[in-house]
Amino acid sequence: MTVAAILKDKGRDVVTVTANHTIAQVCDLLATHKIGAVVVVEGSDLTVHGIISERDVVRAVARGGAAALASSVGDHMTATVKTCMEADTIEQVAQVMSTGRFRHMPVTQGGKLVGLISIGDVVKRRIDNAVREAEDMRAYITAA
């Protein structure tokens, strides 16, 4: 099973911001869209420049107090972003996310953003696969 299969089911819409957006604007987007992270791009260029998650926002506020809400995303985003491609398997992506201890991974094609997957998407797909394999095994044993 590949990342492409996850995107086929969940869609390719990604909420993005630029490094000039404020942390307050990011908080509004996270709440409005009920998501945990947004990808940082520059203008219409869909090259991933960073990612800012709920964790990054909490760290910013812990360091700077309420004043951090007026600071720019560029000051608090994770700039070194691990990305994946549609052809990557969910096992590969799960390993990278687990090792790196992050929950959101942009999907790129030719260096451009084409989607975003979360650890929840990966875990759901792995559980669905395990359930399907168990059902297939039961059907095979019953038919024998």
Description:
- The mean pLDDT is 93.
- The longest helix is centred in the last third of the chain and has 25 residues, at 119-143.
- The protein has five helices and five strands, in the order H-E-H-E-E-H-H-E-E-H.
- It has a single domain, classed as CBS-domain (Roll), CATH 3.10.580.
- It is 46% helix and 21% strand.
- Helix 4 packs across helix 5.
- The radius of gyration is 18 Å and the shape is elongated.
- The strands form two sheets. A three-stranded mixed sheet has the order 1-2-3. A two-stranded antiparallel ribbon has the order 4-5.
- 24% of the residues are buried.
- The chain has 144 residues and is an alpha+beta fold.
- The two termini are 28 Å apart.
Characteristics of this structure?
CBS-domain, two-stranded antiparallel sheet, 144 residues, 3-stranded mixed beta sheet
Compute the number of structural domains. 1
Q: Mean pLDDT, rounded to whole units? A: 93
Name of the CATH homologous superfamily: CBS-domain
- What series of H and E elements makes up the topology? HEHEEHHEEH
As a percent range, the share of helical residues equals 40-55%
Query: Count the strands?
Result: 5
Query: Which descriptor suits the 3D outline?
Result: elongated
Separation, N- and C-terminal Cα atoms: 28 Å
Quickly count the helices: 5
CATH class descriptor name: Alpha Beta
User: Biggest sheet, strands in spatial order?
Assistant: 1-2-3
User: How is the main sheet built?
Assistant: 3 strands, mixed
Question: Which structural class fits the helix and strand makeup?
Answer: alpha+beta
